[in-house]
């Protein structure tokens, strides 16, 4: 009893010590922010574009730099070979190695695993960047550069959070593992297999997985508890054996492009209603609780409109808009391969045209079922055209949505950490986009996952002029410091 | 009287001499065919792609080579500066000069003006060519190469026809002029103005204009008496100020691509019926005489199908098929600029997409009216979508159809020349494609025009594996030799 009593005393003391040290850690972060910006500058300077095979050496260098940074901090670091990718021409190319690292292995502490990526989307100044995309440039408190927000600054913020504990000789409250990949922007090639292979080794002692590869919804910090999945389709219509001159042959052949346009036009109505039978029926209904939650979320529709640059959105009220962004499916037609897409004019009847479109997945849609629904539907509308052309429908990506329980202790810990750093309660939000790795972590490792974003709502991921604000970067580092502490407060039995 | 009598005698003698010399000319052509093929090889080797600004130096070189060839034959040659073209980015680029040449200026003879072009459509081996497109390759009697049939071999055949007369010191039966341009494949930029400017100079003594920029319908030689025109449209739908991530924004924005697909789908029915009000009503009705003529034309539907590589055409009987190829309008959708058109997948909502489509023009359609009909119609169907996006419809080409009188002496001369060389009567055919310059020649110079093709029915113009058969090239040269003679037999008063 006495021991227990003393135990409680000691526990309280530890909490007090942590609270005190939190202030020291915060001061440390504030006083080192120039170094953090320089570290980000060094990382952004590497053109680690995973979609460009010519940039693969840069990507390898990026993974090595990441590993080296973690090694210098005394982490137990590995560069895991995940094999090769096959290129469309049949050649193979080494995939960037995955960096894993471990700081601490105290069996009495919880173990968190932080996932991030250091590859980026393509960027060229000619695309419309105001600054050189690979030269981090600070303007009015924003740090502009490709990959600044997606996902280099968040990865660095996590590393700096651990480093701050080390620098002040404050014991890490949890064991911290890292898994940093270099193929996220092109579909995390090789990562699923690696996670599966290391399920009973690297992941065996992991309690929680933390992902910071997303952003806030407004200026208010957020915790993200869901993402949409994605079923990506190719619909190919093939007719003549080669492209034809539209003057010479027009009027005599049944043109594949006309057929393709005809079937694409049956996917979604002008008001956004998906016309493929069965899709809408599968969607989990919006609960009153959810409706109320959406009502309370800080979201400025006018701001959103002006950011996108449109005069009118698909829905004019906040709840409908957020719901259709996060928890309803939608169809986007991305483009058509094989038709004439260059500037100028060409009088061609394209012989084979392939539409690319995708349907965002939400609970309780099932990609396998969606594949069947879409394929059957398109074939049925195509059949009505009585065209001699051939239709082939292929689903090339079938990524499921991911949804977490916002009452989970990981989220409760997030709420406390946000309150401590920002002195506000976070919004609980979802992502319209897909982070397939969340679903893989959940399905393979069966660990609990939280998405803890520090990116701003207007960071322009994948767009021109991507940025991370200095504020989000530095305060985000503090949030991660606070969160590590807060996770250590979760009783293992709670989970 | 005596003089007249003698005159007749002399005339008969000339005809006899010509007939005799024709055989010599034919022998000359046969014995020089390897040189002709080499000349074509040299011309095809020049990548005179008028649509590619980077190839402009090659195009200038092509015009210079053409001029030089005509100069070496003793022609009176000019390279006519026709100014500059404006590029979409506002820059200007010198247009390829137009080559004019003259052989003979005897006022007692008729003067023919031969029109041709030496620019070509784009071609890359990756497009699916079996041979290098700019390296003329002979396989089974076919000469494969970009521009071989369209229009380099026919231009060379005309030059070689004149050269043969010269080589044998046979007086040219008519004065021969050439007008060779380098922008035909992109709309003959600058040529209309040049023709207008030289109407009372270069064209003042021209009696007949001959165009050989087309092909036969079957293995039977043909004379072409009509072409369709073309109204080429851009329909641009503009929404957000930049491309958006389809996960992050999908479901909240009204996507320009969905709008564009929606309006494109209203242009033409699956059975080929144009849905734009007023278009079909303007078309000249098919006369009984025309119907009968179409019935008699040699045309093998099965062959046509297998050449195109389709199992079914828009119409299954010859008259309907030919009529819809030549004398009814049609809509072809060529492609969409601004959407994702590369291989692979990209989760983008394109911000601005521009469809390219064209409507073939026939008598009695009026391009100005068609422009209004299409623009009004698309705006009306777009309005029904209630989209906040902006639609802009532009007609960038408005080329009228052209139609000649098949009873004209130029056509009678053609029938005789074809009979002499090929020992068959030619089919009288029309072209589905557009040769806008025919219409310009007609409207500006008011001269009579004939289209005298030597290209094969399966030459694959604008496609992969374009070719000219050695047979058509060499026999075509003979046809031109015979035709020059035959034109000299037309009494000026007849016309």
TrEMBL record, chains A, B:
Catalytic center residues: 119, 184
Record bears the keyword Metal-binding: yes
Keywords, alphabetical: Carboxypeptidase, Hydrolase, Manganese, Metal-binding, Metalloprotease, Protease, Signal
Signal peptide region: 1-19
Residues binding Mn(2+) 1, per UniProt: 150, 185, 462
GO biological process terms, semicolon-separated: proteolysis
Superkingdom of source: Eukaryota
UniProt remark on cofactor binding: Binds 2 manganese ions per subunit.
Gene3D superfamilies linked to this entry: 3.30.70.360, Zn peptidases
Cofactor (UniProt): Mn(2+)
Family label: Belongs to the peptidase M20A family.
Protein name from the UniProt record: Carnosine dipeptidase 1
Source species taxonomy: Eukaryota, Metazoa, Chordata, Craniata, Vertebrata
């Amino acid at each position: 009893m006495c021991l227990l009593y003393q135990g409680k005393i000691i526990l309280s003391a530890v909490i007090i010590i942590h609270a005190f040290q939190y202030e020291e850690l915060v001061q440390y972060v504030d006083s080192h922010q120039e170094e953090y910006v320089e570290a980000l500058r060094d990382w952004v300077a590497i053109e680690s574009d995973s979609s460009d095979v010519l940039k693969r050496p840069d990507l390898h260098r990026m993974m090595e730099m990441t590993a080296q940074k973690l090694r210098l901090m005394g982490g137990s670091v590995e560069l895991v070979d995940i094999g090769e990718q096959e290129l469309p021409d049949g050649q193979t190319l080494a995939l960037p190695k995955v960096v894993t690292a471990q700081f601490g292995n105290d069996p009495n502490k919880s173990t968190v695993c932080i996932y991030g990526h250091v590859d980026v989307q393509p960027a060229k100044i000619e695309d419309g960047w105001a600054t050189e995309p690979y030269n981090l440039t600070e303007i009015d408190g924003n740090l502009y550069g490709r990959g600044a927000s997606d996902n280099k600054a968040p990865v660095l913020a996590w590393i700096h959070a651990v480093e701050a504990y080390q620098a002040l000789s404050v014991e890490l409250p949890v064991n911290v593992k890292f898994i940093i990949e270099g193929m996220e922007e092109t579909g995390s090639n090789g990562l699923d297999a690696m996670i599966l292979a290391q399920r009973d080794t690297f992941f065996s002692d992991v309690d929680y997985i933390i992902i910071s590869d997303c952003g806030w919804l407004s200026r208010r910090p957020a915790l993200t508890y869901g993402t949409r999945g994605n079923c990506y389709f190719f619909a190919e219509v093939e007719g003549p054996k080669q492209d034809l001159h539209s003057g010479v042959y027009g009027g005599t052949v049944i043109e594949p492009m006309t057929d393709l346009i005809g079937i694409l036009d049956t996917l979604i109505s002008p008001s956004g209603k998906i016309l493929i039978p069965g899709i809408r029926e599968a969607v989990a209904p919006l609960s009153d609780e959810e409706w109320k939650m959406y009502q309370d979320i800080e979201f400025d529709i006018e701001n959103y409109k002006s950011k996108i640059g449109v005069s009118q959105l698909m829905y004019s009220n906040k709840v409908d808009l957020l719901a259709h962004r996060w928890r309803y499916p939608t169809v986007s037609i991305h483009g058509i391969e094989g038709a004439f897409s260059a500037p100028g004019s060409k009088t061609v009847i394209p012989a084979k045209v392939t539409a690319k479109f995708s349907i965002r997945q939400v609970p309780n849609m099932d990609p396998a079922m969606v594949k069947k629904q879409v394929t059957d539907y398109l074939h049925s509308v195509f059949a009505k055209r009585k065209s001699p052309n051939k239709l082939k429908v292929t689903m090339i990506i079938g990524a499921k949505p991911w949804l977490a329980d916002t009452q989970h202790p990981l989220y409760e810990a997030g709420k406390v950490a946000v309150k401590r750093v920002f002195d506000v309660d976070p919004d609980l939000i979802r992502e319209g986009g897909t982070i397939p790795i969340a679903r893989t972590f959940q399905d393979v490792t069966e660990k609990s996952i939280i998405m803890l974003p520090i990116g701003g709502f207007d960071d322009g991921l994948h767009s021109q002029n991507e940025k991370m604000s200095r504020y989000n970067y530095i305060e985000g580092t503090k949030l991660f410091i606070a969160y590590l502490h807060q996770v250590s407060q979760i009783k293992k039995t709670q989970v």
